[in-house]
Amino acid sequence: MVPNSSHETWDADVIVVGAGPAGSCAALAAARGGLNVVLLERGPFPGSKNMYGGVVYPRILDELIPEWWTTAPIQRWVVKRSTMLLSDTGALNIEYRGTSWGQPPYNGATAFRPDFDNWLADQAVAAGATLLCSTTVTSLVRDERGRVVGVDTDRPDGILRAPLVIACDGVNSFLAKDAGLYPAVDASNFTLGVKETLSLPRSVIDERFGVRDDHGVDIEILGGTAGVNGGGFIYTNSDSVSLGVVLKLPKLAAQSKRPEEIIGELKRHPAIAPLVEGAEILEYSAHVIPEAGLSMMPKMVADGLLVAGDAAALCLAAGIWLEGVNFAMASGMYAGLTAVDSRAAKDSSARLLKKYTDRLEASFVLRDHRKLRRVPELVLSDRVQHSYPSFVTSVVERMFHVDNPNPKPGLRKIVREERKRAGISLRHLLRDGWIGMRGFG
Amino acid sequence: MIAVIIVRDGVLPSGFDEAICEADRRTFLVGSHLSEALPGITPYSQSTWTLDIDTSVVPMPTMASIIAESLRHIGAQGDSIILPSSPDGRDIAPHLAFVLGRALYAGATYVSAEVVTVARRGGLHLVDFRPPSSFVATLQIGVRGADIRNDADGQHDVVDVTASSTASFVSLSRSVEIVEVQPPDASTMDLAEAPRILGGGAGLDDAEAFEQLQRIAGALGASMGVTRVITDRGWADHNRQIGTTGVVVDPRLYISFGISGAVQHTSGLGHPDHIISVNTDAHCPMMQISDVAIVADANGVLSALESLLLARASSGPSQQGDI
Amino acid sequence: MSSARHVVVCVKWTPVEPNVSSSTSTTATIDERFTGMSLADQAALELALHTGEATGSDVIVITAGPAGADKILREALACGATRALRIDMGSAATSMHTADAVASAIDSLPDVGLIWCGDYSSDRGSGSFPAFLAAHLGLEQALGLIRVEFPPTGALPLQVVRRLDGGRRERSIVRAKAVLSVEGSLVRLRRASLSSSLSAQSRPVEVLESTVDDNSGSESSILRPYRPRARTIPAPSGVTPLDRIRSVTEASSPKGSSEPITLEPRDAAEMILQRLQAWGYIS
Ligand SMILES: Cc1cc2nc3c(=O)[nH]c(=O)nc-3n(C[C@H](O)[C@H](O)[C@H](O)COP(=O)(O)OP(=O)(O)OC[C@H]3O[C@@H](n4cnc5c(N)ncnc54)[C@H](O)[C@@H]3O)c2cc1C
Ligand SMILES: Cc1cc2nc3c(=O)[nH]c(=O)nc-3n(C[C@H](O)[C@H](O)[C@H](O)COP(=O)(O)OP(=O)(O)OC[C@H]3O[C@@H](n4cnc5c(N)ncnc54)[C@H](O)[C@@H]3O)c2cc1C
Ligand SMILES: Nc1ncnc2c1ncn2[C@@H]1O[C@H](COP(=O)(O)O)[C@@H](O)[C@H]1O
Question: Given CB atoms, is A280 within the 8 Å cutoff of chain B?
Fold first, then answer.
């Protein structure tokens, strides 16, 4: 069906595809602005199939949902963040405890996506958006000039028309590709996230991770992924622990190891085993993540179309750095606000919609991505993956190892010896350090 | 207590023996060609009353009234009633409860004057009730087993209470009329008699997994059975369903993949010598009755099993199952 | 009576994916996200819609339950039901009371033809509601149907098949109004169109006060995990004393003497084959 653009009768002011964090925030912002919003979700309820590591940083919600922390369904507030470097036998743990993170307005929290996404979508519905689940968008509908004027779905009589569509359909966005916004997709830009939810009694978690009440821990792991470039994570929920790995796709394909074997090895690592001992597997899930940051972002705007969240590759998955929900919520919100402008101006051309990218540029969304531009590449590089963890842990081990009656060797000597042994050139070490400083510092 | 057993053309329903034992060996036998059914009752029942009536032509509400009336007639009006949860038992129990104004406990796993235990949520959970002095219950099939009375060769009191007025119902015009009872489908017989069965349940992800299960069963000289959840989803034909409402089997070997072991399923399982179960829930009933209980993803295990079997088949001759 | 003005379908709001570990969770709390209609109720709805189309009659979908149950009524409206009624009741009422309340609602509708139900609900699962409904309405019943054939025109007579025990089947003809219950495998529910799905969200659900005191028939909701009951065994058989002992010990022991072991799929497969070999099933 080719709709007649000269004489439009719209079914809605804006159609939002996908009720993940991006879609629900887009729908919420647009509905608040008085728009007639239809939010389409393919799952039986929002968040039903959405998986992620387990920590959200909802600061951005301050604007949309004041005091969100009073109603958001969270598991535990993250008060401790550690980064662990694993070699085959050793581990180095760098830990930060933020006491203020355990009280309003909070910082990060562990949450289950079926709870969190559902709650967020409820906010959009409360603001007047119409949510329809179990409905998959199958293609964009365009007018004769190529402008997006609606979507087709898998339901009978499935076409829905609106002057603006916001694609929030997640990683590998089918809609953004359909609109030709993606450059050719390269598998090396993706990582595979695999996660197990392990059941442990509340009190055992409190004891093993050194927390209490609704306080929790976020551990990011470098090394320990069995030679496949990637990273790992452990997050504490109320009475379960999420443990997962993020693996670089091409490397994974080249290895004969299956992701579940890699998780199994991580769980058996001497530094990890005591944390998850005796836990029962509640759930196993896997998902692809866009990882390469800014370098693979598609165009986010076309006539009648905005792209937000993972669909726009707005996700930071740099091994130890796993953020996406916050970027999704922010970009969704800016897309929703732009929809309000577009409606007011009765203009949904790419020219007007550029306001959206302007908003992103001005916010942390694109700034963070700029800043961390080269970090994914660094974190996932062979050196960081295979040489540095054992290098660093050996250095530390030798530093703390008491070998009396021999005197302690000097640190500089240890570093030089271990660097040689790990085959790391000084030039590389310095360069990587510089990129890392610029990115993370 | 008294067991009410509906007999059709002399055929006893499954679970009749258990209902009789649970009801202190007092039996009220209702139906047609009862003389053919009586020998089957004798080892279990101490006192039996019979009511000759063609249940298939009498409407349920009328049938229930006749039974209630007859029970009064034999002085059993105060007795609690137990029926086997066979299709006929399940059909009439609510009507009996209705005409008698009594509570119904449908799908009980245990019935006594003090406690009635009922299966819930597809047989995965139990609820205990303290029943009133008289009630109606249907007893799940296969949950208790039946023991022959000590004096099995001794006295069995049979009293006929056939009502005079039943013939008149035959002429009533019916809105639901039974045309015929078909014998068991021949295609279910291979399953019923299979010495080895591989069973698949809701823990398997999709229809393809059942094709795979079928192939693996073939390689092991076994037949494939499924749970009702699977036939409901249309992933396997009705005649593959094991359980109360499906085929009753009695294999030597049963291997279950992603089956929770609801009582309606296990009641149709007979007494295998060996049971192996693969399930992600270590504590579900199926795992509890297994010789080998493996906590693993059944889908993954199926794939691994198939590739192992393929490897075996290609590595040597005569690796077939010894049926 | 092939053109009664109303076809009724009774559906129940239940958990559809009770994804609880049987050892840990026995509470009857309902997580609304995982609720809906059972496959059996969906099949009943599809047949009711078909009946309605074949006879040009209205399809009325009825449920007895709390406000959360409106969700399935909207689903039914989206699929094409004409009217939706909810009898406001707690979900703990017994089937006898629930059927009583639903029967009064049906009695108040003029000219009702067939009444479709699912054969059993996924939570209570007693399969007793349809027969209670028939008892209250004084109607005949055909329960647990696995096949339904419609005549070329109109809704009646129906040729139906249901299962009996022992693998036997019963074939019947339904000539006039009756209560029918169907298994979930019988038909798939149609998919609601996009526009009716959207408009159903704002269509009204009529809410009726329950005519029965639902506290009078409430049932306890304290669930405990299923545990097999000790089975009575037939008197020992066998010629020698040893045989008799074996026959008793083998039949009675609820097995499961072995502890569950957690294995990777590959190892699990190895273990299965190894046991089959040890037991002599494969060489
Ligand atoms: C293993 C892993 C760990 C992660 N850990 C974290 C973490 O700890 N913290 C963090 O902040 N981020 C994390 N992320 C990233 C985060 O999950 C994503 O960035 C975030 O979910 C993006 O939100 P979104 O709304 O853009 O997309 P999604 O959450 O993917 O939502 C897309 C929605 O669209 C729906 N949909 C898709 N296609 C269609 C269609 N055709 N029609 C209708 N609906 C459709 C989907 O069902 C889904 O609900 C992790 C990701 C992975 C894979
Ligand atoms: C009147 C009546 C009659 C019935 N008659 C029958 C009958 O004849 N036959 C019958 O079978 N049922 C019958 N039922 C249905 C019965 O009550 C159960 O609902 C059914 O047997 C459950 O089937 P299931 O074990 O496949 O599914 P579920 O009970 O849903 O169990 C699925 C199991 O798979 C496990 N699992 C999930 N994922 C995985 C995974 N990835 N790997 C391994 N395991 C996994 C779960 O832990 C769970 O134990 C009847 C019910 C009623 C009310
Ligand atoms: N509360 C209810 N409201 C409407 N219909 C019901 C209700 N409970 C049961 N039913 C119907 O009766 C069937 C069998 O349910 P049950 O007797 O609970 O196993 C269901 O599939 C429904 O069609």
Answer: yes
